[in-house]
């Protein structure tokens, strides 16, 4: 059994919890998730089964989309609703729609984020949340992330109240902390803030509409129709540039041969999916670091066809 399972991650479970439960349901060990989702976050979590675990990192590296709620008026230790309140400041003046839209626009594009203390980022070989649980705050390395778009999903013209909550949709690069983005939105508006709710609506090409719940998976396993919902490995690689090859070249690819980069891919950066004329991806290649004009295999995915 191999392929990509679009799982709907429920609230209260870690990504590892989901893998553990699926190993029991499917009675197989070779299962991997494609990036950590916080326990409070629901939504799209692509799961790789069997040989498809080889391509998990390419789903992780692809863009993500989320819908969530920002609450303005108080911040928390974890930057989401599960943490303890750190700072309060009642919203003492109306906030207009134009103000919020201006802030969202200012946070679109390349931005710098500092990972929250309650996160899985490692500093000196130890995850930040381990320091945080001991009450220790350490210096965290900032990172550049890309916000492709942010939309305000609230049609109010004016927002009033001691605390204000509004919904938004964001498309972003890997490594983006939406919790931190919510805090940044509040800061730009002049108030402490946190992310009060979040659902991932898209990961790579997989959407909420594609996802199955654990109950639906168990039902399909019982009815022996589970494999019908699995996506091929190619579903994890559809966002990568493609190089189609003949059967003759395919034999070389299976043995890890270095190839000449085709003209249409000379200016690309990052991984390239090398596929048969039938659209079956055989290997992932990248530009050769020492031999201009050539590319070398990073991973050979199939050598049995």
Characterise the protein shown here.
There is one protein chain. The chain folds into three domains: 3-62 and 204-236, 2-Layer Sandwich (Pseudouridine synthase); 65-199, Pseudouridine synthase (2-Layer Sandwich), CATH 3.30.2350; 242-300, PUA domain (Archaeosine Trna-guanine Transglycosylase, Chain: A, domain 4), CATH 2.30.130.10. The protein is built from seven helices and 20 strands. The chain is an alpha+beta fold and 305 residues long. The radius of gyration is 22 Å and the shape is globular. Helix content is 21%, strand content 34%. The longest helix has 12 residues, at 15-26. The strands form five sheets. Strands 1, 2, 3, 4, 8, 11, 13, 14 and 15 form a nine-stranded mixed beta sheet that branches. It has a five-stranded mixed beta sheet with strand order 16-18-19-20-17. The mean pLDDT is 92.
């Amino acid at each position: 059994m191999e392929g990509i399972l679009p799982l709907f991650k429920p609230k209260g479970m870690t990504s590892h919890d989901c893998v553990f439960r699926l190993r029991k349901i499917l009675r197989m060990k070779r299962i991997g998730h494609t990036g950590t989702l916080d326990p409070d976050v629901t939504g799209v979590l692509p799961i790789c089964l069997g040989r498809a675990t080889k391509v998990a990192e390419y789903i992780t590296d692809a863009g993500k989309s989320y819908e969530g709620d920002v609450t303005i008026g108080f911040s928390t230790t974890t930057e989401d609703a599960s943490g303890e309140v750190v700072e309060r400041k009642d919203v003492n003046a109306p906030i207009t729609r134009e103000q919020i839209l201006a802030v969202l626009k200012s946070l679109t594009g390349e931005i710098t984020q500092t990972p929250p203390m309650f996160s899985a980022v490692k500093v000196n070989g130890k995850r930040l949340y381990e320091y945080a649980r001991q009450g220790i705050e350490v210096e965290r390395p900032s990172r550049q992330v890309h916000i492709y778009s942010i939309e305000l999903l609230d049609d109010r013209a004016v927002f009033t109240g001691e605390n204000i909550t509004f919904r938004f949709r964001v498309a972003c690069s890997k490594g983006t902390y939406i919790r931190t983005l919510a805090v940044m939105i509040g800061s730009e508006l002049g108030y402490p803030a946190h992310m009060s709710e979040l659902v991932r609506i898209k990961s790579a090409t997989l959407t909420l509409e594609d996802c199955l719940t654990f109950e639906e998976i168990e039902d399909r396993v019982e009815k022996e129709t589970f494999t019908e919902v699995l996506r091929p490995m190619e579903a994890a690689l559809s966002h990568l540039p493609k190089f189609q090859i003949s059967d003759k070249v395919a034999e070389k690819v299976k043995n890890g041969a270095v190839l000449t980069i085709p003209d249409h891919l000379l200016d690309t950066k990052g991984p390239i999916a090398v596929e048969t004329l039938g659209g079956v991806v055989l290997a992932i290649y990248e530009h050769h670091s020492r031999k201009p004009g050539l590319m070398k295999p990073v991973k050979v995915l199939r050598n049995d066809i």
